[in-house]
Amino acid sequence: MQITHTTTRNGVDTATMFATLDLIKTQPELAQFQFRATNRWIDGAHNRSTIKGFFAAGGEDSSRSETFELDAGEPAILLGTDTGPNPAEYLLHALAACLTTTIVYVAAARRVQLTSVESTLTGDMDVRGALGVDDEPRNGFERIGVSFRVTGDAPEEKLREVVERAKARSAVYDMVTNGVPVAVEVTTA
After folding, report:
1. Where are the beta strands (DSSP E) in 7-67?
2. pLDDT cut 90: percent of the chain above it
3. I need a surface site. Which of 1, 85, 139, 143 has the fewest CB within 10 A?
């Protein structure tokens, strides 16, 4: 009789995590993913993105049964009606979520049981650039600040190492700090 042990740490099945990493090491083509979102304007600053399907591990993934809908808008001071967070706030959310998830995965891999991971992100922006009233300020954030509070069953130094490793591996952190080429196509009717 063979006994198997499933180790779950921080809500992560570490046996599956390590098996996935080993498989990708031997078959790197499985690491090619394509995530997608579609967006439709509703009214004023209100628009809605839908996310469901994606390409992963050599084929189209159809495991999601539900479509995610994300509404975006602007606050009244930026001519909106608060139909959702504005796109810059979604960027802060994406960065926070990716860093947090990566911290959890890194901690699980390093046998650190986390108690809590909390973050506060701030994005400083001079909106004159985005509004087109002054070419001097850039259109986007001038600076993003991230502050983490992490607690777990490891010494402070180990928790800091987990965060540093997560920062080095976070996909969204990489995209924000290193940029990514964006190709824009337009079709008109």
Report:
1. 8-9, 12-13, 34-35, 38-43, 46-51, 54-56, 59-61
2. 66
3. 1
21 or 175, which is more confident: 175
Asked whether 71 and 40 are in contact (CB, 8 A), the reply is: no
Q: Is the pLDDT of residue 21 over 60?
A: yes
pLDDT band of 185, cuts 50, 70, 90: very high
Q: Distances from the Cα of 69 to the Cαs of 51, 55, 63, 160, in angstroms?
A: 7, 19, 17, 35
14-26 helix and 87-109 helix, angle to the nearest 10 degrees: 100
Q: What is the pLDDT of residue 2?
A: 57
Residue 80 phi, psi (nearest 5): -100, -175
- Residue listed under structure tokens 């099945």: 13
Residues 6+ apart with CB under 8 A from 13: 6, 7
Cβ partners under 8 Å of residue 115, min gap 6: 151, 152, 153
Each residue's pLDDT tens digit, 88-100: 999 999 999 999 9
- Could you tell me which residue, 14 or 81, shows the higher pLDDT? 81
Joined tokens for residue 82: 């608060």
Exposed/middle/buried for residue 165 (C-beta within 10 Å: 0-12, 13-18, 19+): middle
